[in-house]
Amino acid sequence: QEYTLRATANSNENDEDYDGLVVFKNFVESASNGAIEVELFIGTQLCSNGAECLQGVADGSIDIYISTSGGAAGIFPYVQVLDLPYLMQNDRVAEAVMQGDFVRTMRDMALEDSGDAIRLMTIGNTGGWRNFANTERRIAAPEDMEGLKIRTVVADLPQELVRALGASPTPIPWPELFTSFQTGVVEGSKNGITDIMGMKFPDAGLQYLTLDGHAYMGALWFMNNEVFLSMPEELRRVVVDGFYALQQATFASPKRKSIEAYEAFVAGGGDLYVPTPEEKAAFAAAAEPVYTWFEENVDRGPEVLAALREAVAEAEAEINAGLEADLN
Amino acid sequence: MLVWFLPLFLLFLMLGLPVFFGLLASPGLLIWWDALANDNPRFMRDITLLYRNVYNGMDSTPLMAIPFFMLAGEMMNRGGITHRLVEFSQALMGHFRGGLSHVNVLSSMLFAGMSGSAVADTSALGSMLIPAMEKQGYSRKFAAAITAASSVIGPIIPPSGIMIIYAYVMEVSVADLFAAGLVPGIMVGLGLMLVTKIMADKYDFPAASERATWKEKGQASLKAFFPLLTPVIILGGILGGIATPTEASAIAAFYALIVSLFVLRSMSWSDIPDVLKRAALASAVVLLLVGAAMAFKTVVSLSRAPESMADFVLSLSSNPLILLFLINILLFIVGMFLDAGPAIIILGPILGPIFVEMGVDPIHFAIIMSVNLTVGLATPPMGLVLFVASSVSGERVETISKAILPFLAVEVAVIFLITYVPAISLTLPRLLGYAG
Amino acid sequence: MGALMALLRGLMAVNSVLLRVGRTIAWVAIGIMVLIILYQVVMRYAFNAAPNWTEEFARFLMLWMTGLIAPSAYRWGGFVSIDMAVRTLPRIPAAILSLLLLMLAMTVLIVGAMIGWSEVTGFSGSFTTGSLYTFVFPSLSEGVTFGWDKMPRSHMMASLLVGMWLLVLVNTELVLKSLIALFDPDRKLPQDTAMIAAGAE
Ligand code: NA
Ligand code: NA
Question: For A183, which of B52, B62, B241 is closest by C-beta distance?
Fold first, then answer.
């Protein structure tokens, strides 16, 4: 083969990131007729978080890496726009946005800010949507969050959101989270259902889950730009098509995986609450200060937020037009 | 080409290159050599990856517990707390035949509750007990051997620097590991006491003192009360929901400071800089080693050795009981040459998943691996604890190595007991809420 | 040999000063680490208001502590090694072996120091930390922007770079000593008087 691409994901082989990579590897290796080989490094074998891995992508010791928005925020702070609550209604809107020009806008921004080193290839999904879960009580309104210690990562935006809803953001390392629920060091978290069940958090008392869907768990797939551009055009096309196949796989995989996870959560006695549209509106109103915070404090925040809002409006218009035709 | 990393590393080690440099030089040279052979212009990026992971390997919150527990241990030492633990042990066990050997083991068990390091145990208790034992007629090599053998209890009974590293690399809960280590640690202690008793009867060892009266026992307990509270504070703090393990380690260090400064008044303010300096010095060496081992591990992954090693292990047998036996032998041999921390960082991610896949509980496997490699600290030729025992006692490493054999035998027996009776490790964490 | 001895004395004097400064910063750093983490526990447990900067700042201090005091440990023989080969060989081969090992260590350190420099000054260093801030001085070329800004990771990564350079200095000292011992085994070598026992595990 002529090109060997090192791809890494910090998750494990049960994760949708891995599903995406398997599809990518298979597609690229066969469509390139063996000219490209994809080597997978799953877990923290080469690097263990967004900053470390993106440094590797920039200098080419890693060719492909999937980052969460929190992981990339240290160098591209505006990717946290995906963590802004309640901007996208559902999967259909989010998936339309992630397949449109919004990703190209973000790619240009990332290339500019990395000196043409890091290329955003596509945005898929990793784990569905973030929801609030806690050990204490059912949360139906923002007031119910009052005083809860909610675990967040050490990043500004999730902390601002938790604070805006009246709870206290508390940074706890992921491996200690189970014990921390159990002993009451923290009382809640904001995670997708597959992570909650994968870590057996309900066994530690995390029994109340409100499906507020406050953030789309976007998976940002980055690639070393120089390696990409060094390929002849027909192979670049194979890679780009490969990322399209990967994206579709990561859109589908969490939907399939979450069914079982939700069933297991309820079977274990968990309280699964779906807020009404009015209640969701109350959450969105309470979260309002986060938008202002984002525009005022995040580099290129207004620019990226405007791009996302425009993309969402376009996607919604298109979906509604389609629905108009489909429903009648 | 990269698969030569291990033989080359061992060669450097045997020639006398410090472990830190060996961990970086062997993969670095192989990457370079590989690049020359295959005309690979991208090799410098892989060397950069190696360097970067030294830094990344150290830049971690859970690892902060290492300097904190080191500090707690130093405070205990300086603050005369070690002394009180020995007196307390003597009041309880001094009147037995072989009294001071029993005191040596018991003190190590108590010291283990506050310190996470076998080296700290050897140097603290050894400098006090080896001369005392010699005075009572024990041979110096025996005194050094029992000190070294019992000091490995330090990182088995919580807190434990080795388990902090294991939890960090394998992403399991430090709290669960700590809870799982308590009973195995006590078993190692009881095993050593059993050997001591047999030898004491055979060679007619002296008792250390008259049987202590209840009043004397009471006084010794009172003096040791505040120090003995440390493990209660650490575990209570973690399990009571007040603190994460890293925070509990800082609390332990602060508690030791308060006790030595104000309660026991055995340390003064002017001692503090020196105590902090010693803790910083000892933990910096460990942290650099952790970083270098993390970097080494990256190159191991690039070479795809983990996959071929896993295939090899699974080709030996599909019976986990047999494989566990073989792995224990492998770990014991590795422990003879490699420090526990680097060994865990390099081998944990390779071996752990194989056994977890086969149904071995991850915490149980963690204990098997940690205890085995901890015992490796007291095995020649690369037994850190033996070096320290040698420098504290003035006895040659080779001589101590021979005298320690009966104790090592009982420790190996305990390792196999722990391996084949998972309940020894898992009962306590399960009682405390471990869901595995 | 006289020139080598003079060089060694000079280097040792410089190293002694640098390493003493390093140790002083290191012990202060570990002390502050304890206080910061205690503050974190109190704020969360008693006031339900967990600060977000404490952990990262403590890590910052731990990394600097390591970079600044590890070279002292190396100088005092605190880096673990098996000295069997050197002890069993006759004097001349043993001295040559020690020298070769020191040169290997020097290669590791110099490559490390070079990569470290490009890491700190390059793209890798420009990532920001999650919660730490640093004072930005006015820069006329880019307009007068100053005040507090997110701290770049380079401020943390510089700890290992500084550590590498200090280790290079210490290693040079060891090379000189080993050279002198090779050619003039009877000469008494100067010792570092500040040595405290470096235990490690
Ligand atoms: Na311990
Ligand atoms: Na002992």
Answer: B241
- Nearest-by-CA chain C residue for A56: C124
Query: Pick from C34, C73, C124: which is nearest to B284 by CB?
Result: C73
Number of domains forming the structure of chain C: 1
Give B 211-240 residues with CB within 8 A of chain C.
Answer: none
A155 has pLDDT over 90 = no
CA A289 – CA B315 distance, rounded (Å): 59
Residue of C33, C75, C70, C46 whose CA lies nearest to C172: C75
Cα-based distances in Å from B244 to B71, B85, C180: 18, 27, 52
Which pLDDT score is estimated for C197? 47
Nearest CA in chain C to A50: C127
The alpha carbon of A230 and the centre of ligand 2 are apart by a number of angstroms equal to 63
pLDDT of B339 higher than 90:
no
Q: Which ligand is nearest to the CA of B117?
A: 1
Q: Do C38 and B48 touch (CB under 8 A)?
A: no
Q: Which residues contact C44 (CB under 8 A, 6 or more apart)?
A: A149, A170, A185, C50
Considering only CB atoms, which chain B residues are within 8 Å of C31?
272, 276
Question: Which residues in chain B are closer than 8 Å to C118, comparing Cβ atoms?
Answer: 48
pLDDT of residue B208: 62
**pTM, full prediction:** 0.91
Give the residue on C whose Cα is nearest the Cα of B381: C82
> Residue C85 sits in which domain range?
2-197
Average pLDDT, chain B: 86
More confident residue, B13 or A238: A238
- Mean pLDDT of all residues in chain A? 92
Q: How long a stretch of residues is chain C? A: 201
pLDDT-derived band at C142 (thresholds 50, 70, 90) equals low
Catalogue the E-assigned strands of C54-162.
Answer: 128-136, 147-152
Question: Looking at the predicted structure, is the pLDDT value of residue A272 above 90?
Answer: yes
Cβ atoms within 10 Å, residue C154: 18
* Interface residue B153 vs chain C (CB under 8 A): no
This complex has an ipTM of: 0.91
- The structure tokens 């002529």 sit at A2
Query: Considering only CB atoms, which chain B residues are within 8 Å of C45?
Result: 242-243
